Amino acid sequence: MPSHIMLSYQWDDQALVKKIYDRLKGDGLPVWMDIEGGVTGNINDSMAAGVEEAVVICPFMTPAYQASRSCKKELNYAESREVIIVPVMLTNNWEASEWLGLITAGLLWVDFRNAEKDEEHFEMCLSSLEEEIMFNAGHLLAVEEPQEEVVDQPEPPKPRLKKKPGRGFRHALSKLYIHESGEQIIDPTDDSRNTVELSETAGEHCYWLEIKGNGCKYYRNVVTNRYLGFDPNRNQVHSDVGPSESEEWLMLVDQTDQSSQRAVIIKNKHTGMFLAVQNRHFMGLTSYNEDCRWFLE
Question: Per-residue confidence at 47, pLDDT binned at 50, 70, 90?
Answer without folding.
Answer: confident
